[in-house]
Amino acid sequence: MLIKVNGQDKEVPEGSNILSLLDAFKLTPDKVAVELNRRLVKTALYGNALESGDQVEIVTFVGGG
């Protein structure tokens, strides 16, 4: 199925979820914030299946000082 990740089209298998998407990008849930269709997603819901046409934004936390 086709979804949009950070503005780019991405083909993912049916039944994919945010956790599998993060794994594909080698990211961990504790180091990112995720929006699904312009709404912030709670970590507890990362296992919910994505649907074709969903728009996902992944923002990584960067430390600095």
Q: Which percent band covers the strand fraction?
A: 25-35%
Largest sheet, described in full? 5 strands, mixed
Helix amount: 10-25%
Strand order of the largest sheet: 2-1-5-3-4
Strand-pairing-aware structural class: mainly beta
Order of helices and strands: EEHEEE
Distance between the termini: 41 Å
The total count of strands amounts to: 5
Mean pLDDT: 95
Q: For the CA atoms, what is the radius of gyration?
A: 11 Å
Q: Give the count of helical stretches.
A: 1
The gross shape turns out to be globular
Stretches where pLDDT is under 50 for at least 5 consecutive residues are none
Question: What does this entry show, briefly?
Answer:
The protein has 65 residues and is mainly beta.
Report on this structure:
It is a single chain. With 65 residues, this protein is mainly β. It is built from one helix and five strands, in the order ββαβββ. The protein has a five-stranded mixed beta sheet, with no helix packed on it. Strand 1 and strand 2 (8-11) form a beta hairpin. The radius of gyration is 11 Å and the shape is globular.
